[in-house]
Amino acid sequence: MYIIGQEEIDALARVIKSKTLFRYSIGHECERFEQRYAQWLGAKHFSLSASGSYALTAAMIGLGIGPGDEVLVPAHTYMATATSVLAVGAIPVIVDINESITLDPAAFEAAIGPYTRAVIPVHMWGTTCDMDAIMAIAQQRRLLVIEDCCQGVGGSYKGRKLGTIGDLGCFSFNFYKNMSAGEGGGVVTNDDAVIKRVNCAIDPCHAFWTGRGEDEMPFAGNGARASELMGAVLNVQLDRIDGIVAAMRRERDQIHAGIGPALELGLKLAPLNSKDHDCGANVFLTLPNADSAETFVKTFPSVIAGKTGRHTYIEWDQVLQGAGAAHPLMNPYNMPANARCRRTYSRDMCARSLDILNRTVLVPTQPQHSKEDVANIIHNIIAATRVALGHASKDEVELRNAAPIDTIKYDTKQLAW
Asked: What is the distance between the alpha carbons of residues 5 and 51, in angstroms, rounded to a whole number?
């Protein structure tokens, strides 16, 4: 959460004083946010859920994905992208990323098999996937596309809001996201039939509260509905998101423009698929190798992408160990329908991704950074590059004070983001 203040306090107080904390029949904050956010995205439907993880599960349920299906997921994303596939009985197949830290379209195309049903491109760390290439491949191969926008709230791809390009889009509003209610998530789509299944997945009683349709076929699902407290906070946060993203994108561009001396020494900027429209939440710096990246972050405290805990596939214990469910009879890896799917993994299966991740450094932006903060970050990136690439010793450079890196978001011992 970047900015929270009196407006959120007032919104929560109004709901509590009204004693209308339940969203159906008596409350209106969740419904108001769903309508406003769908309009902001330029989409027909948006449904809130209790978390981004469950939004991914509900999206796949909405599309009818299940046992016998493979779903392609990138090697670098929060593990919920993969475990949500298991939650619907399907099998995740792990695919390489490229230097943009997002799904490699060429690797995606090469990974498609006879039982591949869908792909989940993840807009990671506030940047965007190469959606033109991904959508072209998916349409040619008749695959469903579920955009994981949990880390890309507020961003766009070439002018189109993230989440509205594929068949469905999924969002997270937990504490570590650009727009936050502490926890929460949701699904966006333009498909009338799909949103009914999504709503039933989120709340099996949804049709009871809103009215049954003659064509609806309800099914049993876990409850994951939102509360009015979440809706109230999100309505305020929605008013903030454009300013937050614009400030971060502006800071990112200022840093890019200011670190010319570091780029001349051999530091590289990771490629961005939609620089003018993404969230600008991080500056992505590419070092020649893992050792120089380690030296960089020891000089200027920042974050190596490959060392952010459960974001990289080698840390997805449940997937690597085949623990796809709490009960063995419900474990997708044991289901006869999945016998034909690819169900084996190894820690070195995406070695190219690991190499990229372990030499990519993230320097986060922050919408409340001052001009001095940004100037200090630029200075420190140049200084750390000099040390990392052998042009100075650590004792020869002087770092300036700068707003500290938010280690809660990135620490390898945390499961944040």
From this structure: 22
Q: What is the pLDDT of residues 37-54, one digit of tens each?
A: 999 999 999 999 999 999
Kindly report the average pLDDT of the chain as a whole number. Answer: 94
Closest CA relative to residue 204, chosen from 224, 190, 183, 188: 224
Is residue 257's pLDDT more than 80? yes
Interhelix angle 351-358/290-299, rounded to 10 degrees, is 30
What's the rounded Cα separation, in Å, for the pair 308 and 317?
A: 15
User: pLDDT over 90 for what percent of the chain?
Assistant: 89
| Tokens 């995406």, located at residue | 350
Q: Produce one character per residue of 185-224: b if its CB has 16 or more CB atoms within 10 Å, e if not.
A: bbbbbeeeebbbbbbbbbbbebbeeeeeeeeeeeeebeeb
Contact criterion met (CB below 8 Å) for 320 and 413: no
Measured in whole angstroms, the distance separating CA 368 from the mean position of its chain's CA atoms is: 22
Query: Which residue bears the tokens 């939004």?
Result: 55
- Quote the DSSP letter at residue 122: B
Long-range contacts of 12-19 (CB under 8 A, 24+ apart): 12/229, 12/232, 12/233, 14/232, 15/228, 15/229, 15/232, 16/229
| Cα gap 288→302, rounded to integer Å | 17
Mean pLDDT of 79-108: 98
Spatial contact of 108 and 72, defined as CB atoms under 8 Å apart: yes
Which pLDDT value is given to residue 417? 31
pLDDT band at 289 (very low <50, low <70, confident <90, very high): very high
Which of 53, 55, 98, 110 is CA-nearest to residue 74?
A: 98
CA distance 41 to 26: 26
The number of residues making up the chain comes to: 417
For the full predicted model, state whether its pTM sits above 0.90.
yes
The answer to whether 334 and 328 are in contact (CB under 8 A) is yes
| Helix (H) or strand (E) segment spanning residue 407 | helix 407-410
Look at residue 320 and tell me whether its pLDDT is greater than 60: yes
* Closest C-alpha to 248, from 205, 280, 278: 280
Question: Strands, E, within 234-343: which ranges?
Answer: 268-269, 282-286, 303-304
The helix/strand/coil state of 304 is strand
Place of tokens 């407006």: 7
| β-pair partners for 93 | 72
Question: What is the residue whose two structure tokens read 């200011």?
Answer: 258
46: which DSSP letter? Answer: E
Cα–Cα distance between 10 and 16 in angstroms, integer? 10
Per-residue pLDDT at 210 exceeds 70: no
Calpha distance 269→97 (Å, rounded) = 16
